[in-house]
Amino acid sequence: MAISDTELIRAWTQVLTLSKLKSGDAVTVLTSDHTHPQTLRCAITAATMLGACVSRLDLPPVNGEKSLSRDTLAYLGTTPLTGNRAAIAALKASDLVLDLMTLLFSPEQHEILASGTKILLAVEPPEVLARLVPTMEDYHRVQAGVALLKGRREMHVTSAAGTDLHLPLGEYPITAEYGFVDQPGRWDHWPSGFAFTWPNEGGAHGRIVLAKGDVLLPMKNYVTEPITLTVKNGFVTAIEGDAEAELLREYIESFQDPEAYAISHVGWGLQKRAFWSTLGLYDREATLGMDARAVSGNFLFSLGPNNEAGGSRTTACHIDIPMRHCNVFVDGLQVVDDGKVVESLMKPAKLAAHKEAAHA
Ligand SMILES: [Fe+2]
User: Fold this and answer.
1) How far is the CA of 320 from the centre of ligand 1 (A)?
2) Is 326's pLDDT higher than 90?
3) Does pTM surpass 0.90?
4) Average confidence (pLDDT) over 14-23
5) Could you please report the per-residue DSSP string of 218-281?
6) What is the CA(40)–ligand 1 centre distance, in A?
7) DSSP 3-state helix, strand, coil percentages of the chain (rounded to 5)?
């Protein structure tokens, strides 16, 4: 269902207000050939109405001849900003960049963020943005997830389908994606709603069994038959199953990069307004699949780079796999039970502390 400009401007206004946009702030809207025109015009309208000084920077797409997919997350590394000093300077001079292009996992993005510029990625279809417009409740829920990951030494994931995955933790930071950028130098993605981290280098081990209804991204397919991944010393060493396993193997092999098999970010979804079923309702080129990445109670793991977390892997291959019906434990504490978050643990940290104080 299409959405009106009025609703989308309302959603942008909410995101920009949560992002603490002030009158006089310099906002640069980063666009490319695939930028959605309604998202663009509503972003510019909302930012202008809030008093921002708005510019648009349009850059040509790159990597189209290398990638097997049109998905903007399917091929990482070089971006339209690589070597573009003038564009980088413009973005560093901005208070806020609205990324309607997909500038992700690049040294240029780190450089821009380090200058204090905030970056908000927003490339899902307009009605998805409006349905999943972030709220303070989302923020508190994700912060509760982050608090559960802090100081933990191991994430353990199991499932009735046969997953038994051990992920030692502590080496890499914990990341909160709640859909707005409220601090200088912060990056976020609207829509989202999940907490995650990265396993210690070389430490992930065990078995992942993808089951019916799990999602492969960027393929944007639901798995329809079991695919078993063997994980040793931080890397997937075998992908077994029938035709779907063969297709997944072929896709990863096409990058000809051993780093493509590394276990990357791991965490769980917390977004209650996201749904597993949404992916089946959209044209695969219209969406990134953020519903499946964020849906409350998923176990989301990734294969590929960890430079986003400060690691050294920069492989162009990036596969996100949200799984259903998993159990997730952190140091033995169950946080996801058969694909449902343990709600009593996901209360806002402040509220929980309040309650404890009241009981004391
Ligand atoms: Fe990812």
Assistant:
1) 5
2) yes
3) yes
4) 98
5) TTTEE--S-EEEEEETTEEEEEEESHHHHHHHHHHHTT--GGGGBEEEEEEE-BTT--SGGGGG
6) 24
7) 30, 30, 45
Report how far ligand 1's centroid is from the alpha carbon of 155 (Å).
18
pLDDT for residue 61: 84
State the distance from the centre of ligand 1 to the C-alpha of 50, rounded, in angstroms.
Answer: 32
How confident is the model at residue 76, as a pLDDT? 74
Whether the pLDDT of residue 272 is over 50: the answer is yes
Whether 146 and 124 have beta carbons less than 8 Å apart is answered as no
Query: What pLDDT shows up at residue 229?
Result: 98
CA–centroid distance, 45 to ligand 1, in Å, is 30
Ligand 1 centre to CA of 318 (Å) is 6
CB 349 within 8 A of CB 150: no
Q: Does 93 have pLDDT greater than 70?
A: yes
Q: Assign 177 to helix, strand or coil.
A: strand
Q: In angstroms, rounded to a whole number, what is the distance separating the alpha carbons of residues 289 and 276?
A: 9
Instruction: Give me the pLDDT at residue 69, please.
Output: 80
**Chain mean pLDDT for the chain:** 93
Structure tokens at 56: 């648009």
CA 210 to centroid of ligand 1, rounded, Å: 17
DSSP track, 5-30: HHHHHHHHHHHHHHTT--TT-EEEEE
Tell me the mean pLDDT in the region 294-307: 95
Name the token pair of 230: 């063997």
Alpha carbon 263 to its chain's center:
15
CA 236 to CA 230: how far, in whole Å? Answer: 6
**C-alpha of residue 206 to centroid of ligand 1, in Å:** 20
pLDDT in tens, 119-138: 999 999 999 999 999 999 99
Which residue's structure tokens are 């909160």?
A: 176
- What CA–CA distance (Å, rounded) separates 123 from 119? 13
Summarised one tens digit per residue, pLDDT across range 172-202 is: 999 999 999 999 999 999 999 999 999 999 9
Distance 207 CA to ligand 1 centre (A): 19
Please name which of 217, 148, 135, 147 lies closest in space to residue 178, comparing C-alpha atoms.
135
